[in-house]
Amino acid sequence: LDFTATFGETVTVTGTPRVSLTIGSTSRNADYLSGSGSSALVFRHTVLAGDADTDGLAVSSPVALNSGTIKDAAGNDAALTFTAPSTAGVKVDTTAPTITSVTVPAAATYRTSQSLTFTVNLSENVTVNTVGGVPSLSLTIGSTARSAAYESRDGTTALTFSYVITAGELDTDGIVVASPLVLNSGTIRDEAGNDLVLTFTAPGASTVLVDAVAPTITGVSKPADASYRAGQNLDFTLTFSESVAVVTTGGQPFLAVTVGSTSRQAGYSSGNGTSALVF
Question: What is the C-alpha separation between 244 and 230, in angstroms, rounded?
Answer without folding.
Answer: 31
